[in-house]
Amino acid sequence: MTADTSLSLRIQMGLERVATAMRADDWASARAAGVNPAQMAVLAALEGRGRGLAVREIASQLGVSQPSATDSINALDRKGLVLRQRDADDARSVRVMLTPAGSDAMAAAQAARSVGGQAVGALAVDQQQDMLVALVAMIRKLQDSGTIPIQRMCVSCRHFRPNAHADALRPHHCTFVDAAFGSQDLRMDCHEHETADPATRAATWAAFTADGGTLQAQTER
């Protein structure tokens, strides 16, 4: 075995292959919605955000420049898929939000996705769960390095209490809905997500990755 066949490199190569298929899905879903992939990404960023987002927030979420985000927003505005409104808390700021037509476009886009879903669906349930947890860990690492902004995942939410229950199938707890759930139910993009402060996110992750224990026990140490 040589350095270029290291485990981490082979995983990266595998993710690149998956990304190629996902890009094909992106084009298919974008065509179904009548937009291009860049515009589709803006719609996805706005989905579930009742107050909308400022242009700078959209640009940050997508990792693009504000002028690039503005170009996509302008195109979506002309198509009636988004609208701009003055921020109620800051009259100098404009927030962008989905219109009903934009929500319909998102539904059409989701229905058109097939390649990625079929590939994931071919995995056994325990493999899917392991992959979900691994992806959460990778995304968290990218967030901590500043490569991507905080995502609306359970592990970064102030409502998440990992390993709060003795039930091995449903060890975690969400205080927003006051319900227990398992790792297979971890959200990657929760509309009710509220970002926890950095110290709480660190304690949450320590509790999530610990063998047993509760968030409360971790934070009281």
Describe this entry's structure for a reader.
There is one protein chain. The chain is mainly α. The protein is built from nine helices and six strands. The chain has helices spanning 7-33, 37-46, 55-62, 66-78, 100-112, 115-121, 125-144, 198-209, 215-219; strands spanning 53-54, 82-87, 90-98, 160-161, 172-174, 179-181. It has a three-stranded antiparallel β-sheet. The protein has a three-stranded antiparallel β-sheet with strand order 4-5-6, with helices on one face. A hairpin with a 2-residue loop joins strand 2 (82-87) and strand 3. Helix 1 (7-33) packs across helix 5 (100-112) and helix 3 (55-62) crosses helix 4 (66-78). The chain is globular and about 50 Å long. It starts with 6 loop residues before the first helix and ends with a helix.
